[in-house]
Amino acid sequence: MRLKIVFLLIIITLLVFTGCTKEEAEPAKETPSPTTEVKSQQVSPPGIGINKGDSTTAVILDTHCWEENCSLTPDPPDELLLGETPLHVKPGDELELSVSTSETPVSDEIYSPAINIVQVSPRGEKETDVNFEDRYLTAPTEEGKYYYNITTEWDGELIGKAIYAFAILVREE
Question: What pLDDT, on the 0 to 100 scale, is given for residue 131?
Fold first, then answer.
């Protein structure tokens, strides 16, 4: 009798998990190699930080590739950052972007990619280029939660592209 109950529970569990899948399967997102080889050493994309004074926010690596002609599509940042705490800032605050790596870099080029930042509306409906100079950007003047994608590109000794996402919460407090 116990065996029948266990078997029945397994069947019910499998049916529940099968019923919870999406009707249309999304195409698998290409997962490129996390590292590339330069001068016989493996290189990973660097970490990106967004800082306001002593505060920093999670900047999530979304996708990347170490090829000459990368064609990457970022995930919507509001979905990628679900559960992450945004950086709390005041309207018009100046935010600093930092690039770092825990590895011994094979080239200092890892610290100086070409960088483009766009503000993305929830659900990715609208993108707005962000004015970004000398690794500083300015928070919006209107209160609210804002999502961003950072695209970094290397085209020298290192060749590749990486896309990151972060969020800030603008409040006058």
Answer: 87
Cα 167 to the center of its chain, rounded Å = 10
> Taken in order 94, 73, 58, 105, is the CA torsion positive or negative?
negative
- Residue in the structure block whose two tokens are 């499998």: 14
**Statement: residue 144 has pLDDT above 70:** yes
Please provide the DSSP assignment of 16-70 as one string.
HHHHTS-SSPPPPPP---S-EEETTEEE-PPEEEEEETTEEE--EEEEEE-SSS-
Q: Among all chains, which residue has been given the structure tokens 């200092």?
A: 108
Residue pair 142/103 in contact (Cβ under 8 Å)? The answer is no
pLDDT higher than threshold 70 for residue 18? no
Q: Measured between alpha carbons, how far is 132 from 138 in angstroms, rounded to an integer? A: 8
User: Which structure tokens are listed for 148?
Assistant: 């961003």
The pLDDT value recorded for residue 43 is 77
Residue identified by tokens 């919006």 is: 140
Half-sphere exposure at residue 33, Cβ-oriented, CA atoms within 13 angstroms = 8
Look up tokens 């950072």; give the residue: 150
